[in-house]
Design goal:
The structure holds 3 protein chains of 3 kinds. By secondary structure, chain A is mainly alpha-helical. Chain A has a single domain, classed as Amino acid/polyamine transporter I (Up-down Bundle), CATH 1.20.1740. Chain A has 15 helices and no strands. Chain B has 3 domains: 98 residues, no CATH class; 135 residues, no CATH class; 170 residues, no CATH class. Classes of the chains: A mainly alpha, B alpha+beta, C alpha/beta. Chain B: It is a multi-pass membrane protein. Chain B: Belongs to the GerABKA family.
Chain lengths: 364, 455, 371
């Protein structure tokens, strides 16, 4: 079952490679992006150990269970409230930025609000299902997309248009000291495992032991993603030109051609894969929110109703906020906002690790 | 003497009592065999018992044997001898072809039924290339016989139940005690006991009644006519239900991948069967996605196609009065009708019907510019792909789901198509067949996998 | 009963609603006018400087028999988008750029800043980044309208020239839209665009020259220079080379079928960088004016190398003299030196002093089918 933990990491990783995070990293390439990528395994490793170690001590339980056990109710509610808001925004940013991507690349004439509603409909269907079935779905979808991913990466790297000089030029900028934003954005890729706060209740003790080899694989996967999402757009679109491109990964995939394929433009394969991964990413994030909400509601009287009005209210809020924001926000604001959000993440997650340490001590 | 004699106070008049209960039927025989000093009564229904057997096993020996004691012990040691419990049981046994023999004060129930349906049928729904050609018969005894003969293991248990409050059909539950999933077994036994229907005729009806949810279209129990599939599933720890009078067995629990395996996978060489499997899944995707992809691509994103292909699609659509989704729907519905018609029609005609429908309708529709010729190609590809799914129930289900995907492909283009496909996967993974996840990949060994999951 | 009825109702409404829901952006493929190529000309009008011509494919029901027909539309405008908006009003279908493969800009427009011309093509999402861009020597429109004798392709004839799936000529310099953009924005490399000329008499396109677009200046290359540029840039690996005698008489021809090119910027002398080229060719003799002897193959190779060396050095110094850098020496310099100061500024001052050394070796391995 260990592999399901990897799937959580991979979903986040794949989403990262088309998110605003890597765009920010590309923008900051003269402010130490590369160095922060190289250094990021350090933080990533710390983070992975901090989280996985904690959750290994409580097999079959999730964070809300643990908090309810050791903390007073008001504190639990506050902490869980903050967590669910963070997770909600993570999903929301994925949703909005991907709707923009779709509007730009796939269906420019469809109103953004319509794409949002379609997404929300299916996400609402998905997040209310059992946690386990989401894990199974991730596995199946990753299996389907895997050959396409390999194709995309191979196609990009073997393309005659992939100019090694641009990559080398980027490497020559390794001597810049990384800015905080660069570090925070490269840290984002490691965060997939954080969804364990809910998904951990699906794993029992004996099947979820991370050994050093697994940590190494996880860190290498994430590092690989960072390198791929940093160098492929630069190699294909040029080092200085990358500034002018709002969706580097998508645009980079449009520079590839399969002259002998059924589909000539690789962009459409990339888009299909990214619809899959984005949907999963939003699904995972919002499922966590829904499950936390369920746990909070369950402490009250109405346990027997699986979907009660409070849950309906929460999902209604998802709808309203998403539909409202999709109308008012523009691409620039979104990038600024997600930059801000990503900058906040390291603080948030390392505070969580402290919280875990405290919980561990209490449990002893 | 091994068989127990059941003594009741009303024993002397048991035959009369039963005869009275059975009375208005024309086929009731209440016979008295008599020699000098011995009298033996027989009671049976003429239409269900085997007259030859009565002649051979009862009447002949009766007149050949001198003493009543000898005849008594002879009857008692016959293998057809059954226990007598209550009067109701005896009655129902009589209706199944037993003969009640009364010798002095003792009653024996001999099972001498005549079976006219024990012919083992050829498999025609799930034919295979190299597997056994004969499937199950319509008689439960024969079926159990077949299965016992191919599964020589003491741990194979057969329980029988009577279901249907009116027609009291026999239902056998078969499982291998050693590796059966106990929770599934208990669940099924309970469900069978709680069946309140008066008449249950076929295994597919039974299967529907065993399913809790009303609006399901994915099958969660498999109906098969192949005895080798039954054996394989019993060995794999599944529960098999066989209803008397139907040549099909029900296998539960059944998950998605079970419906995608053909028995030939076991018989063909490894590489070949893997290739066929890949082909089958390819067919599944074609059948699910192709109509939706056609609409989404031609009406929202023609740039996905190669230029040459896009122009020829555009060219073939010149003059077609309908939008693409009507075109697809139109042809798909006609194709469904054709499939349906060729099932219902007599064999001799169905070939002609398909040819007339498929070829002539297709060509004429293109000629009349009602559809584009590329559309005809696509729909026939879809139709062929549908038949690549080995189990019928699954292909019915996929045929329905395809329209849902087509709907979303029409309303929201590629995005809608992919998302609805994802939702379909989510639906499947959320589905359970008697506690087993319906769609789940098993990468490790099954025991390791199931251990880690809370159910 | 009621429940079942409700379900049937639901299904009915579901299918009815398709026809309403699909209203937005649902457009059938036969209602789209696919643009194959765009030509941008200088209209001569100062107020409306752009004249845009598009080549639209008209799908026919029977491509195999009738072939493909095209229609042309052109309009003037302040900007390309305005001109296109005007064209949009003249076609009964929706203009769809998603299959546009060729963009041609006339040379006279180059006096305006070309960056602004191509901006529209970069910005629009439905124009492929893998479409080719070229320069028309005179009027771009004429090139679009020209239908060569040998045409059989469904797409536009120029497609076969650029895609290298059919034509492989060392004189053609294909340039993708995105490649043009990245080379244009990047300092240290200058894009080179093919120049397309029309041979009116013969009804054919001639593409054998190229234009280097430097910083605000254009350097036109001769066919021979274009060929050498393509070889050095790695655009082509297989080509023919003709060796002439001193009096200009043809001596023999060599067909090169594999090429490896490698260069390094040597900075040992901090004032004067040395650009070291290492070129290895392998090929066969293709045509000769007299009998050849196989033991002389080495001699032929040496002779060819010598001639090639002279030509390549000429071109390199020509680029240096013109202060353009289509081969990306500046980029290579940036890519091999740690970014401590402004590396490109350093290079700008170093480039005019740079020296070229050439290590070329042509290996002729066969005399062909006969000796």
């Amino acid at each position: 079952m260990k592999r399901y933990v990897f799937y959580l990491i991979i979903v986040n990783m794949l989403w990262y490679s088309i998110s605003a995070g890597h765009k920010v990293l590309l923008d900051l390439r003269e402010q130490g992006s590369l160095l922060s990528i190289v250094l990021s395994p350090l933080f990533g490793f710390m983070f992975l150990i901090g989280w996985i170690h904690f959750f290994q001590t409580i097999p079959g339980k999730d964070l809300p269970d643990q908090l309810l056990k050791y903390f007073p109710k008001w504190l639990t509610r506050t902490i869980l409230g903050i967590i669910s808001i963070m997770w909600f925004f993570a999903g929301l940013i994925s949703l909005i930025s991907f709707v923009f991507t779709l509007k730009r690349f796939l269906t420019p004439e469809t109103p953004a609000i319509f794409i949002t509603i379609i997404f929300l409909t299916f996400i609402t269907f998905g997040i209310l299902l059992r946690t386990k079935s989401i894990l199974y779905t991730i596995e199946i979808v990753l299996l389907i997309t895997f050959p396409f991913l390999i194709l995309l990466i191979l196609k990009a790297l073997t393309s005659s248009e992939f100019e090694l000089d641009f990559v080398k030029e980027a490497v020559m900028h390794i001597n810049h000291f990384p800015s905080f934003s660069a570090i925070a954005n490269s840290f984002y890729v490691y965060l997939g495992v954080s969804n364990l706060i809910i998904f951990n209740n699906q794993f029992q003790q004996h099947d979820f032991t991370f050994k050093w080899k697994d940590y190494l694989i996880a860190v290498l996967l994430c590092l690989g993603t960072l390198f791929v999402s940093f160098f492929i757009p630069i190699g294909l679109l040029g080092y200085e030109n990358i500034d002018t491109i709002p969706y580097p990964m998508m645009t980079a995939s449009d520079t590839l051609r399969m002259p002998l394929g059924i589909i000539e433009r690789v962009l459409y394969i990339a888009l299909t894969v990214s619809i899959f991964t984005t949907f999963l990413s939003i699904l995972v994030h919002w499922h966590v929110v829904v499950q936390i909400a369920k746990k909070l509601i369950m402490t009250k009287k109405n346990i027997h109703q699986p979907i009660n009005w409070l849950l309906g209210l929460i999902i209604g809020t998802f709808w309203i906020i998403s539909i409202y924001l999709i109308n008012v926000i523009n691409e620039y604001q979104l990038i600024t906002f997600s930059k801000l959000f990503n900058n906040m993440l390291p603080f948030f997650f390392f505070t969580m690790i402290l919280l875990f340490q405290y919980l561990k001590r209490r449990a002893r | 003497m091994q068989t127990k004699k059941k003594k009741t106070t009303s024993q002397t008049n048991l035959i009369d009592l039963l005869a009275e209960k059975l009375e208005p039927s024309f086929d009731i025989i209440n016979q008295k065999l008599q020699t000098d000093n011995i009298t033996v009564h027989l009671l049976y229904l003429k239409t269900v018992v085997d007259n030859d057997q009565i002649q051979n096993y009862i009447i002949k020996p009766f007149f050949e044997m001198g003493s009543i004691q000898l005849f008594d012990s002879y009857i008692a040691s016959l293998p057809q001898n059954n226990k007598i419990e209550t009067n109701e049981k005896v009655l129902s046994q009589l209706s199944r072809g037993s003969v009640l023999v009364q010798i002095q004060e003792q009653n024996y129930l001999l099972d001498l039924k005549k079976i006219t349906t024990n012919l083992v049928l050829e498999t025609n729904i799930e034919p295979s290339i190299q597997g056994p050609e004969l499937g199950l018969s319509e008689d439960i005894q024969t079926n159990l016989n077949i299965i016992r003969h191919r599964y020589h293991n003491i741990s194979l248990k057969i329980e029988t139940h009577q279901i249907g409050t009116s027609n009291n059909q026999t239902l056998a539950i078969l499982y291998d005690q050693e590796n059966v999933n106990d929770s599934v077994l208990k669940n099924l036994q309970e469900k069978v006991k709680n069946l309140k229907h008066s008449v249950i005729l076929s295994s597919s009806e039974l299967q529907r009644l065993l399913n809790d949810k009303k609006w399901t279209f994915m099958p969660i129990m498999m109906i098969t006519e192949r005895s080798d599939r039954v054996i394989q599933n019993i060995a794999g720890g599944k529960v098999v239900l066989i209803l008397d009078g139907t040549p099909n067995a029900i296998i539960a629990p059944s998950v998605f991948f079970d419906f995608m395996t053909s028995m030939d996978d076991k018989y063909l060489p490894f590489g070949v069967s893997k290739f066929l499997k890949v082909l089958r899944y390819f067919g599944l995707f074609i059948c699910l996605l192709l109509p939706g992809v056609y609409v989404a691509v031609t009406s929202y994103n023609p740039e996905v196609l190669r230029s040459e292909l896009a122009f020829s699609v555009a060219g073939s659509r010149v003059g077609v009065p309908f939008p693409s989704f009507i075109e697809v729907l139109f042809l798909l519905v006609f194709m469904e009708l054709l499939t349906e018609a060729s099932i219902r029609l007599p064999r001799a005609v169905s070939g002609t019907a398909t040819t007339v429908g498929g070829l002539i309708l297709g060509t004429a529709a293109t000629e009349a510019a009602l559809t584009s010729n590329i559309m005809v190609i696509i729909v026939s590809a879809v139709a062929i792909a549908t038949f690549a799914i080995p189990i019928n129930e699954m292909s019915f289900a996929i045929r329905i789901v395809r329209y849902v995907l087509l709907f979303f492909g029409t309303t929201a283009g590629i995005t809608g198509l992919i998302l609805s496909f994802l939702a379909f996967v989510l639906y499947l993974t959320n589905l359970e067949s008697f506690g087993e996840p319906y769609l789940k990949l098993f990468v490790q060994r099954k025991k390791v996998e199931t251990k880690g999951v809370k159910s | 009963m009621n429940k079942r009825f409700r379900f049937v109702h639901f299904l009915f409404i579901l299918f009815l609603s398709i026809s309403f829901l699909s209203g937005c952006s649902f457009r059938d493929i036969d209602n789209r006018a696919f643009v194959l190529a765009i030509a941008v000309d200088d209209s001569g009008d100062t107020k409306k400087p752009y004249k845009v011509t598009i080549k639209v494919v008209i799908p026919s029901g029977n491509i195999k028999q009738e072939g493909v027909k095209y229609a042309f539309f052109s309009e003037k405008g302040v900007s390309i988008s305005e001109a296109l908006a005007l064209i949009r009003a003249t076609i009964d279908k929706d203009i769809d750029f998603s299959h546009t493969k060729i963009i041609i800009v006339s040379k006279s427009l180059l006096d305006r800043n070309l960056g602004n011309v191509t901006d529209f093509f970069h910005r629009r999402r439905d124009i492929q980044l893998v479409s080719w861009i070229g320069i028309a020597e005179k009027r771009a429109k004429d090139i679009l309208k020209m239908e060569p004798k040998s045409q059989s392709s469904v797409t536009t004839p120029l497609f076969n020239f650029f895609s290298r799936t059919a034509v492989q000529s060392p004189y053609i310099t294909p340039m993708y839209l995105f490649d043009f953009r990245r080379q244009q924005i990047e300092t240290g490399i200058d894009p080179v665009l093919p120049i397309i000329k029309i041979d009116k008499k013969e009804k054919r396109c001639v593409i054998h020259r190229a234009l280097v677009i430097g910083d605000g200046k254009y350097v036109e290359l001769t066919p021979q220079q274009t060929m050498i540029y393509n070889i050095l840039r790695g655009n082509i690996e297989r080509f023919n080379a003709e060796i002439k005698e001193k009096n200009g008489k043809f001596k023999y021809g060599v067909f090169i079928d594999s090429t490896s090119i490698y260069y390094k910027i040597n900075r040992e002398n901090s004032k004067q960088p040395i650009i070291n080229y290492k070129i290895r060719h392998q090929g066969i003799l293709e045509e000769s004016s007299k009998y050849t002897e196989s033991n002389l193959l080495k001699e032929y190779g040496k002779e060819t190398s010598k001639i090639a060396k002279k030509m390549i050095l000429e071109l390199l110094t020509y680029f240096q003299k013109q202060n353009v850098d289509p081969l990306g020496f500046g980029l290579r310099y940036k890519a091999t030196n740690l970014h401590t100061g402004d590396t490109y500024k350093e290079w700008e001052s170093l480039y005019p002093q740079a020296k070229f050394t050439l290590d070329i070796n042509v290996n002729i391995i066969s005399t062909g089918k006969m000796e």
